[in-house]
Amino acid sequence: MKEKIINKASEMFLKLGFKSITMDDIAGEMCISKKTIYKYFCNKEVLIEESTALLHKEVHEIIENIVTKKHNAIQENFEIRKMFKEMFQSSDTSPIYQLKKHYPEIYEKVMLREINECNAVFKKNIEQGIEQGLYRDTLNIENYTRFYYNLIFCIKESTSSEKESQNLELEILEYHTRAMATNAGIIELEKQLLNPTI
Predict the structure, then answer these.
(1) pTM of the full predicted structure?
(2) Would the keyword DNA-binding be found if you checked this record's keyword annotation (predicted)?
């Protein structure tokens, strides 16, 4: 039952927002009593923490799955972006923005968890792109990893609309890729930008 509550709460939080969803809403949606929810979670904050931990796990499992497909580095970034777009397409407001605004302590925990994992993914992607001749071999990998991370999360935490956030993320991805790309990388980037599903 605990897992079912976390799964349903995660789905509702993503779709309608962490602030607007109440324990009553979750109980009503699941046709259970609020008392049942409180048996597993002493308050809404604990349920939000568990839900964000589940979402974090799911997101990084999907990213790992994309990485194992051995796309080139530029296509890999576009595939990851497409996954995020599909995962959050039903959200009206950005989940990260909501967390920062309404639950800053949980937001801090989420960001501490994300920093290491995201930076590892970004760094590996840059190293792979250099090996494939798509990114310049003179890049300072640590700096470019940090630039990209800061740009992405600055947008996520300061933009309330999920749609606007996704549009800006695409522009950041293009900006980031152009800054690193060789001529071969620019050709691959242009090919990805023509894909109607991005």
Answers:
(1) 0.84
(2) yes
CA atoms within 13 A on the CB side of 90: 9
| Digit-coded pLDDT (tens) for 32-80 | 999 999 999 999 999 999 999 988 888 889 899 999 999 999 999 999 9
Q: What is the 3-state secondary structure (H, E, C) of the chain?
A: CHHHHHHHHHHHHHHHCCCCCCHHHHHHHHCCCHHHHHHHCCCHHHHHHHHHHHHHHHHHHHHHHHHCCCCCHHHHHHHHHHHHHHHCCCCCECHHHHHHHHCHHHHHHHHHHHHHHHHHHHHHHHHHHHHCCCECCCCCHHHHHHHHHHHHHHHHHHCCEHHHHHHHHHHHHHHHHHHHECHHHHHHHHHHHCCCCC
CA contacts within 13 A on the Cβ side of 191:
10
Q: Rounded CA gap, 126 and 73, in Å?
A: 7
Give 163: exposed, middle or buried? Use CB within 10 Å, 0-12, 13-18, 19+.
middle
193 and 174 in contact (C-beta within 8 Å)? yes
Spell out the domains of the chain, with CATH numbers in brackets.
55-193 (1.10.357.10)
